[in-house]
Amino acid sequence: MMNAHIELHNAGVVFPVFNAASLSLKNRVLSTVTGGMIERENSGLAHVKGLDSINIKISHGERVGLVGHNGAGKTTLLRLLSGIYAPTSGHAEIIGDCVSLININLGIDPEATGRENILLRGVMMGLKPKTIKEKIEDIIEFTGLGDFIDLPFRTYSTGMQLRLAFAVSTGVRPQILIMDEWLSTGDEEFKERADERMRDVVSSAEILILASHSHELLLNNCDRVVWLEHGKIKMDGKAEDVLNLYFS
């Protein structure tokens, strides 16, 4: 198996906004708060630049944090690196099995059983059915749901739903792990085991990419931090150096 590796060359992501001609006031406001990232055509079609000319190389063993204000492009970059988005310009090379923990409820069907949802969520994460089936009993055991695993997901309490989603999302050890904040179940009884599992998943990943607003979390888990602003990289360097400037 090849070592995990990520490289973006002048990568950009542009979103079209339709019916923009009648939103002139709103567009002016949006242009102000997004730093002029909106471009308009004569037809009234607007384009919003989510990412603009991103050049970044992430090698095996790196732990990379992402910071930036809301709307800076962090989530767009995470989705690009996860394969959810394809670059509309430039090139993205992502080598290695990748699991994204951006939305752990993605792929969950309220009417399906817990067991069926393990398969559904696993497929949405890009796992092969064979891999999911090999892991399913371990995932079920970790949830602690017992016989509830064969009841519809909608019958679960909020804590039980989070247990299942968390267990599936952390049931594999990917080469590349992409996270938007640290996962937490909110279930005190389950929290200690969940935190231990998260640390295990993070430590086993060849590459970690973690977006967060927490100085402490990033400093403890990342050796490098990328600072995004208006869809562009403002700074990329040692975690302590970038975080000191960003949080100051």
Q: Brief overview, please?
A:
The chain is of the alpha/beta class and 248 residues long. The protein is 36% helix and 27% strand. The protein has a six-stranded mixed beta sheet, sandwiched between helices. It has a four-stranded antiparallel beta sheet with strand order 2-3-1-5.
List the helices and strands and how they pair.
Elements: E1 5-17, H1 24-33, E2 38-40, E3 46-58, E4 63-67, H2 74-82, E5 89-95, E6 98-101, H3 114-124, H4 129-143, H5 158-169, E7 176-180, H6 188-204, E8 207-211, H7 215-221, E9 224-229, E10 232-238, H8 239-247
Parallel strand pairs: 4-8, 4-9, 6-7, 7-8
Antiparallel strand pairs: 1-3, 1-5, 2-3, 9-10
Helix pairs in contact: 3-4, 3-5, 4-5
